[in-house]
Task: inverse folding
């Protein structure tokens, strides 16, 4: 409690300057937190690292408290959970990218896929069997689909004339997909058979989350760090919500989190007001 109070007093003057009234909260760790995901208002995970050790943290009370769940020897890419039990994370080394799966909330992990030299930037599952991943391979982009829970993957395409990297994918439902590329937002409303291309004018967008084809959030960058943007018209225009930040996640139109270094922020107002949480 004393540690939290000191941090709050130090950071309170800064909070007043933050757009959309984001209030910093204590993570309870000095390690760099780089990604966060929740499956409901209570259960979520975050990844962090220090001195070559890569960690996954978990909360079961909405982010008020966090505990160290798992450590890994190779760098962690991304974390993607479908529910409180089933989840995936990617890892990488000089030999390529790997996908691990858990069925017990992250207590234990099994290697289910290892690829050639490639970079998996994002992975998204619609259910326990059907999922997609995007990223980069030599001379082009990576876009793959699985229908057996990640055991095997087949190549997919977004455009015959696009050769850049793909950064993030959002699967709204069986038909509606959204993918961010180097300078383009790709949208499909027919399960990926055809794609609409929307130019991106605010720089590269690396993470995204949509609840329909119109309302969503993405992460961008400039010289001051990560930026959280929001759109209500399907990516035609964007408004800035917060900076700096490393990663974010929403579980509905109102409830979300973002992290910056070892601080975790929570909102229940769609990003208008945020508060600091503890990850001891």
Result:
């Amino acid at each position: 409690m004393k540690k939290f109070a000191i941090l709050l007093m130090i950071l309170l003057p800064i909070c007043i300057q933050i757009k959309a009234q984001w209030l910093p909260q204590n993570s309870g760790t000095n390690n760099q937190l780089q990604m966060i995901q929740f499956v409901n208002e209570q259960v979520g995970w975050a990844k962090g690292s220090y001195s070559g050790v890569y960690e996954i943290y978990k909360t079961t009370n909405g982010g008020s408290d966090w505990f160290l769940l798992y450590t890994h020897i190779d760098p962690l890419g991304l974390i993607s959970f479908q529910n409180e039990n089933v989840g995936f994370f990617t890892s990488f080394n000089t030999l390529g990218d790997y996908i691990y799966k858990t069925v017990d909330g992250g207590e234990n992990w099994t290697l289910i896929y290892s690829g050639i030299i490639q970079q998996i930037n994002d992975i998204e599952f619609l259910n326990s069997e059907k999922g997609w991943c995007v990223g980069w391979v030599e001379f082009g982009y990576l876009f793959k689909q699985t229908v057996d829970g990640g055991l095997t993957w087949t190549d997919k395409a977004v455009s015959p004339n696009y050769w850049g990297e793909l950064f993030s994918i959002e699967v709204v439902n069986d038909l509606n997909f959204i993918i961010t590329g180097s300078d383009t937002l790709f949208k499909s409303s027919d399960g990926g058979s055809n794609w609409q291309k929307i130019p991106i004018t605010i720089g590269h967008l690396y993470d995204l989350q949509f609840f329909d084809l119109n309302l969503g959030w993405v992460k961008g960058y400039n010289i001051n760090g990560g930026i959280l943007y929001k759109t209500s018209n399907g990516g035609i225009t964007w408004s800035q919500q917060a900076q700096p930040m490393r990663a974010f996640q929403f579980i509905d139109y109102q409830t979300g989190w973002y992290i910056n270094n070892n601080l975790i922020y929570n909102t229940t107002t769609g990003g208008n007001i945020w508060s600091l949480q503890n990850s001891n």
Q: What stands out?
A: Residues 1-19 have pLDDT under 50 and may be disordered.
